[in-house]
Amino acid sequence: MTIATNPSRTGTYRPSFTWDAHACLPLDEKTPISLLDDYVAGNIDYVCVNVGMDMNSIPHILRVIAAFRAKIAAHPDKYMQIEKFDDLAIAKSKGLLGVGFDLEGSVMLQDLPEMIPVFAKLGVKQIHFAYNRNNSVAGGCHDVDIPLTDLGAEMVKSVNANGMIMDCSHTGRQSSLDIMRVSSKPVVFSHANPKALGGHERCVDDEQIKACADTGGVIGICGFQRFIKSPNAPEVPDMVRHIKYAVDLVGVDHVGIGLDTMPEVAGCSDFPDGVDRSYYWPVSSGYGPGAGGAAVFDAKKLPALADALIAIGYSTDDVDKIMGENFIRVAKASW
Q: Where is the chain membrane-spanning (predicted)?
């Protein structure tokens, strides 16, 4: 499905649809929804916003979902909550930023596959099962490498059955390979980078990327400095380098964008319930002082990224796929 270009958007080349597969806003009910305007300025048509991680309690996550939904609904001239696949075209035709939610982890599922349709009804369109550390469902990328548990296999089936995209970002290597084997729908890395270039433990290796492509999935190239391995804040050439590596490895049908932007707002916190940061982001895994920068590629520069891909020889059809059509294909199969 190709969704017609909105002629009101600016940029030298305007992709048919621009999809950012993962973004973060402060997980706080006080967070101003105007932070989404950066995505509008980047000609983004759909953004998937995190609403909770393994370290966040269920009450915390529900407060965030309720607040974000209410604030999106309060601005029908700018944003639209995406509930089903056809909403993407509706939002695009009206010049609105489509917004969906994702969960990073499975602790909030309370070991119940039946929780997945509940979160789906609240607007969660995408989920991965472990945020850096192991849990009862799957392994995390900064922990002992364990297989997907039996409960995890049931969770994958519930994700497939209840209109969510199955994600493997932050997931341990073996668990990610197991998820891709179990899933009957395409599996994505919504925000990840090739380990061959990024080198970080949170990046994914060639076998994982190929397994993702074999499901019909997409690797969303992440703009986080530490994973993209850039000396300064990531710029267009850094993104191009990672996109090109993934395209050369698995083909243009399996590469997209998942920037992982993380704006900070005074007075808002991701962790009002308290969290041991050193557990989830261990110094031994490349976090903390001296571990490199934490800047993220600016979403407003995505039009320049599309132009740069054209400039190095990608066709407009290929750029359309990378900038959004590939994730649209996955959404159509999953939602």
A: none
